[in-house]
Amino acid sequence: MTHFLNRRHFLSSSLGCLGSLAMASFTQPLRAQENDEYQALVLLFQFGGVDCHDVVIPYGVGEYNEYANIRSELMSAYGSDRARSSLLQLASSGASAGFALPPELSGIKALFDEGTAALVGNVGPLVEPTNRDSFSAGGVALPPRLFSHNDQQSLWQSSSPEGASVGWGGLFSDLLIGQGISTLSDFSALTTARDRLFVTGYETAPYTASAGGLNLDLLDVVNAQTDGNLSAVYQMLRAQGESAAHILTRDFAGTTVNAFDANIEYSSILGEAPDLGVAFQADPVGTQLERVAKIIASRQEFGVNRQIFLVGAYGYDTHSAQPTSLPNLHSRLDAGVSAFSESMKNMGIFNRVTLATASDFGRTLADNGDGTDHGWGGHQFVVGGAVNGGSLYGDIPPPSFEHGQDAGRGRLIPTIAVDQYAASLGRWLGLDDSSLAQALPNLNNFSSNPLANLLL
Asked: How many Å apart are CA 257 and CA 428, to the nearest integer?
């Protein structure tokens, strides 16, 4: 693989925010092929840092009481919503015994009970295995800029802090193409979020799968150059791509024309997407997941056998007003994941689509009176028909301070690295160990494979 920012990557990235344009005045033949080997990975990134201690709650009487005592101010503000009797107890045997979900996650709990959702405990960026002793002594390599939103979002998506240009989802796409499992397409990697790093590769340029409408910058170009005549812009750029003297002019014009063509195709295909047979909530998470479901429903028309998606859920920076805001965010997540899962079942491809959650970081076990502060490790869900679910993978440390994985105030030092989490998803997509090591630079620092049985 060529590991530099090539001209195609630069041009494609600069044009990636065009969105989907409905331009009926142009036509382009649609690609269609029967595909029995289709698989899709959806990373649902919860931006802001989810309070992992409010996602998985101790259920044993003694542990719950200790937890409630540490978070006494938050628990008082939550009221009955976090009373032990309101919690959704997980399986009474196995590693998940002794834990519960908040009542807002009833749909995910149902998926867990049916064996199509799993819980992965204490995941986060790591360079090498780390615990409280090595962290305190400074004898271990640490991820850069811990507890910083932008940097940890980037580390989760790319193994590098803010400023990274490619993410492991995009690299997975590149490598799947290199292994001959997938083919390079405008629709191999897509984002419905405000962000695109995760699905950007060296060769893979993510498509921004918007609900519709022109990007403002493109509107400015159109209005300035042609008084709104979009067709004239298209024809002008096509001519420039064929006849301009300078290679960069030809490349820019050609890449822009390709982006227009991709938008035409996207709009045409999505306009004919079949009925999903399920109602999604009209909130930001539900709307994005519905769009992803429609794209997957139209997979034959898009003509790809692997797709990787980034979905963005925002608002999880709950330093304050957490008892008011976080339950609502949980409810949106639960409704969106539940409807998405139901739509995949309706299509008969639930076993070929895996949704995994991620977030900047977890948060402190200690509350600040009205919320929680930046942490490190957190707990994630993996959902899909191929998931060996109904189980907890990894460990969830006790609801106390100064245990072996406490970085202070109940900030969890991860026991599963993002690289290990990502590798389990990449293996399911078909990547071999050599490819995974290229995409995930810290993977070989971890000898164990705690997620070996996560996906069937």
From this structure: 35
